[in-house]
User: Fold this.
Amino acid sequence: MMNRDPDEIIAAWLEAGPSKIPEAPLQAVLVAVQSRPHAVRFSRRPAIFVGDRRREMAILATVSIAVILAGTALLGLGEPRAGIGGPPSPRFPTSPSPTGAPSLDDLESHISATIGPIQTPNSIGVGFGSVWVTTHTGGGLIRIDPATYSTTWIALESVQVGNVLVFTSDSVWVGRGPGAYAEQVRLDPKTNRVTAVVPVSGRAAFGGGYVWTYNGQVLTQIDAATARVVDQVRVTDPDPETGVAFGRGSVWVATSQHGLFRVDPVSKKVLAQIDVSAWKVASDGTEVWTVEEGRGVSRIDTIRNRVAATVDIAGAVFPVVANGLVWVTGDQGLTVLDATTAVITDELATGQTNYVGVGFGSVWVPKFHLNEVWRVDWPVSH
Assistant:
């Protein structure tokens, strides 16, 4: 067996199974695996790889897990388990799950795919039949086909890429440059090519036919079709933590120190100032939610222009409003709330994560430090 090709050794070992192979041939298998120069990927979930060797690497991952399990059994380090899954990988969070949340073991069974490696995936948006992933230090976007998991790399030629994706009726917008928001880039989803660059900084939102950005000092209105700046106005005093959204026919400007401002998109006049520490703001066009980073989220009563409810969530970072729900990333994972009642409906023990996306019957979770994206089937049954 030692004189055979490594691929033949691995194939024969897989066919026989770890429980039927003697120790000596197992050593040959270990040598065969070690002789392969490729990176090995460990996962209990289906693995989809970016690159020409996706299939081969996925096979090697399965082989490597099986080798480790068999070696453990032979050394008497633990009881063998059915199948090749074994215990959960130690790279997953081990902190207690949020109250009412499924354990990580349970949640992991709902992760239908892992896509990677993707360098520093930071945020996810869903639009034009695809899942779009910003790479914080990767210099571009990854576009994922949710049916086949095929990926397309879109270079933005930037040191940093922003964590806000904006979808208009015919284009995709994202910030890039030093600080990730130095300028706004418009992409054509038909060709995946950059069609315009607007030298305006700030986080962005879309509504009323315009892209709106706010950089902590100035609100900018950009014609989405022509990529030309239409107007710029000052809303309030400068603020280090801000955001912008469009909902209920208004532009919403979030500031951590001065509150939430409702702005008329035509006159650019402030219609209301709401007393809430709003580091960021999100809307699905109807419901408006803000986040006080690290502490919790608030639902805004858009009829009375006041805070309707506040929910404490440790480590809260950013709310995503979609499908009648609000998805909030926190210290332990995702907290899911009813967008109209502010009642917590679910908690997912994903561990720390960044800006998720919702679509195609799933929650798409960027795992920044693992350089991968999880597809979590939704809803998750407990």
